[in-house]
Write a structure and sequence with these properties.
Blueprint lengths: L8 E4 L5 H12 L3 E6 L2 H13 L4 E5 L5 H15 L4 E4 L14 H28 L5 E5 L12 H21 L5 E7 L8 H4 L2 H10 L8 H12 L10 E4 L7
């Protein structure tokens, strides 16, 4: 199967590093023009330059996904400079690992605002642009295995990612009339620049591998390959689904 996304424009949030960076690069490699979003403007610019260095088309898009005005400017830039919005990947998110009884109100709010509110605000802005432009677009929300199973101490994170799974269903139902599909990806334990140190600890690695049927940790490419498929015409009849890319963690 050869996936060609030429003529498509994608926005990827939180694409300055990790899984978001891998998705942005994979979409660009498939031919899409990519708006690389991150709250860190330098990181967004670095990924954009890397994509362009490989012959792709990309623009950095510094924006805080908690702020509707900044999201609107990002969407306007994509429409103006890259020719519309055909794909949105909501990847921006943070993790809080802290016992539930110790979580401060502002810590809870920050996780929910970035992970869940940010996903909704970006999806809303992108959908408005798709609808007004007559585009049957693709929205892909990055959740987590912890949106379906508990793994303490991550109460705020689990709540936000569980919310994304159900939000994906509702938006898929609401926007199907416009030809917009909304799907989710729930990564399992995936090795990135940020998590490599954690996973390299032998007790942690042993615990995880004992629970993963495929007996390996995930790679960013495991997630980005699925994102490219969901962004393509091959996925036109799939909507409202969250696909778990976890080596089988959640089936046990």
């Amino acid at each position: 199967m050869h996936i060609n996304l030429e003529g498509k424009t994608a926005i990827v949030t939180g694409a300055g590093r990790g899984i978001g960076k891998a998705i942005a690069k994979a979409l660009a490699a498939a031919g899409a023009k990519v708006a690389v979003n991150d709250v860190d403007g330098d990181a967004a610019a670095e990924v954009s330059h890397e994509i362009e260095g490989r012959g792709g088309i990309a623009r950095p898009a510094k924006a805080d996904v908690r702020v509707a005005g900044e999201i609107a400017q990002m969407v306007q830039m994509a429409v103006r400079d890259l020719g519309g919005i055909h794909v949105l990947v909501n990847n921006a998110g943070i993790v809080l690992r802290k016992p539930a009884e110790e979580i401060l109100e502002e810590e809870w709010d920050r996780v929910i605002q970035i992970n869940l509110k940010g996903t909704f605000l970006c999806a809303q802005a992108a959908a408005k642009a798709m609808i007004s432009g007559g585009i049957s677009g693709k929205i892909i929300n990055i959740s987590s295995i912890m949106g379906a199973v508990a793994l303490p101490p991550r109460a705020a994170y689990c709540a936000s990612k569980g919310g994304i799974i159900n939000l994906t269903k509702d938006l898929a139902a609401e926007w199907a009339q416009y030809g917009i599909t909304v799907n989710g990806i729930a990564p399992g334990w995936t090795v990135t620049e940020m998590t490599q140190g954690y996973f390299s600890q032998e007790p942690v690695r042993r615990f995880l591998l004992e629970r993963i049927p495929l007996n390996r940790l995930g790679k960013p490419e495991d997630i980005s390959n699925l994102a490219v498929f969901l962004a393509s015409d091959y996925a036109d009849y799939i909507t409202g689904q969250t696909i778990f890319v976890d080596g089988g963690w959640t089936i046990l």
